[in-house]
């Protein structure tokens, strides 16, 4: 049997893979920080012969070109993609021989992109599984609108045909190894599960259960927003990304932090939201490493904006830097570590934010006021549109978090109680509102508990 190792990038909802026969290995869809792949290959004592991409990625900067350069491996992409560098171009039906025991058979599976490929992993006993990239995912498929809304319907039709031909070409027991689908915005609908087979997908996946036109209608109607930084990823990957640079950014002293905050720059607090609520530098934005920091920062901050990171420790800053280079944020202007009291020029520059639960909000809404908290004059929901449509607080104002920096003036006057699905985005939103001088309370609670707490909910027709 061929061994398949998973290299998880949970912060972006993606997976890379290393498949090996014990001597040689092929790597599928590597992230930009390829030191993780090299370390794994070193631990296993295997030589990487091929680095393959299922498609030109729109959600992260690929490490494939650099990994191939460092290892001498063949760099494999679709022969139909117009790229700014040399590679081994392949098309449907080609076979890549890594060793007599390890082969990849190329399947043309357009849908997520026009030239999307999947790779069937074949060992001595035949097909073992298939690397599906953004084609067949766990219970769903890759979204079809990333190359433009005008192509979404045609690509959805292609996605349906690709999934059917893939399923027909493989046994039910073949493993399915997707790149996207673990929280990635590249999925048409949320994926489910942690592993799957072709047989299971036949039973549960709409692309294999629905007729083509019904699948297309369902797919197109379910597409929500996706991060703004996606607009830059495809171009970077097409041109050929530069090698990753993870050298520590310049250290900022308290006076420099004060200047950057005064200039309205993005100074990001990486600590947990609990720590941020208790004490922080006024004007900073809360995006803790306990959530998808890079996704929300890359979505909200203008492309190329100066970004400064604040963490408890250098390790926190290094982790955040690693996550940000994956989406092309390469040049941090500064960083600082330590307690907010140590980083403040003046104790008056320290802030804190009150928090509450949905039970407290229910009391506010039915007139049972809390003397310890500002009144809930405005309830602000910062979840995405699909979440809002499914269920929301009656009478709430809706501004999705990624749009909030440009729509702060649309939040009605009064003290604001802000919520999301869990408290992470609410804290980020509250930090933006507080920076703009608003009085705010963070609803640090699970939205799934709102109804049981007595909060009146409704849906969008």
Automatic annotation (TrEMBL):
Entry's Gene Ontology BP terms: glutathione metabolic process; hydrogen sulfide metabolic process
Keyword annotations: Hydrolase, Metal-binding
Highest taxon listed in the record's lineage: Bacteria
InterPro entries per the UniProt record, alphabetical: Metallo-B-lactamas, Mito_Persulfide_Diox, POD-like_MBL-fold, Rhodanese-like_dom, Rhodanese-like_dom_sf, RibonucZ/Hydroxyglut_hydro
Rhodanese domain mapped to chain residues: 373-459
Membrane-spanning intervals of the chain: none
Keyword match Hydrolase: yes
A GO molecular-function annotation: metal ion binding
Name of the protein: MBL fold metallo-hydrolase
Source organism per UniProt: Pseudonocardia broussonetiae
């Amino acid at each position: 049997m061929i061994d398949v190792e998973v290299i998880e990038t949970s912060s972006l909802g993606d997976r890379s893979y290393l498949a090996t026969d014990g001597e040689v290995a092929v790597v599928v869809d590597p992230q930009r920080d390829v030191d993780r792949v090299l370390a794994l290959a070193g631990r296993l004592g295997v030589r990487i012969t091929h680095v393959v991409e299922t498609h030109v990625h729109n959600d992260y900067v690929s490490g494939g070109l650099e990994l191939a350069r460092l290892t001498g491996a063949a760099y494999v992409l679709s022969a139909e993609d117009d790229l700014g560098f040399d590679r081994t171009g392949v098309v449907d039906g080609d076979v890549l021989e890594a060793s007599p025991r390890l082969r990849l058979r190329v399947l043309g599976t357009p849908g997520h992109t026009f030239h999307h490929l999947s790779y069937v992993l074949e060992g001595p006993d035949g097909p073992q599984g298939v690397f599906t990239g953004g084609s067949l995912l766990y219970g769903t498929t890759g979204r079809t609108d990333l190359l433009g809304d005008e192509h979404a319907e045609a690509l959805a039709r292609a996605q349906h045909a690709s999934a059917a031909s893939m399923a027909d070409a493989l046994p039910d027991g073949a493993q399915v190894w997707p790149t996207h689908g673990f929280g990635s915005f590249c999925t048409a609908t949320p994926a489910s599960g942690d592993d799957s087979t072709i047989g299971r997908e036949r039973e549960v996946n709409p692309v294999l259960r629905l007729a083509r036109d019904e699948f297309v209608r369902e797919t197109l109607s379910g597409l929500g927003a996706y991060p703004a930084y996606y607009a830059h990823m495809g171009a970077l990957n097409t041109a050929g990304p530069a090698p990753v640079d993870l050298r520590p950014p310049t250290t900022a002293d308290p006076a420099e932090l004060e200047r950057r905050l005064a200039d309205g720059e993005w100074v990001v607090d990486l600590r947990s939201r609990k720590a941020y609520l208790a004490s922080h530098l006024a004007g900073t934005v809360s995006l803790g490493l306990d959530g998808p920091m890079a996704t929300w920062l890359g979505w909200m901050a203008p492309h190329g904006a100066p970004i400064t990171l604040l963490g408890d420790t250098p390790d926190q800053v290094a982790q955040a830097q690693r996550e940000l280079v994956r989406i092309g944020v390469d040049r941090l202007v500064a960083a600082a570590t330590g307690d907010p009291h140590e980083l403040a020029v003046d104790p008056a520059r320290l802030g804190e934010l009150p928090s509450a639960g949905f039970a407290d909000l229910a009391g506010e809404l039915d007139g049972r006021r809390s003397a310890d908290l500002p009144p809930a004059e405005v309830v602000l929901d910062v979840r995405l549109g699909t979440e809002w449509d499914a269920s929301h607080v009656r009478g709430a104002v809706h501004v999705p978090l990624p749009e909030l920096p440009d729509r702060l003036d649309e939040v009605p006057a009064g003290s604001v109680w802000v919520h999301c699905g869990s408290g992470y985005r609410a804290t980020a939103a509250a930090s933006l509102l507080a920076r703009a001088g608003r009085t705010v309370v963070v609803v640090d609670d699970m939205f799934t508990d709102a109804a049981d707490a007595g909060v009146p909910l409704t849906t969008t027709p």
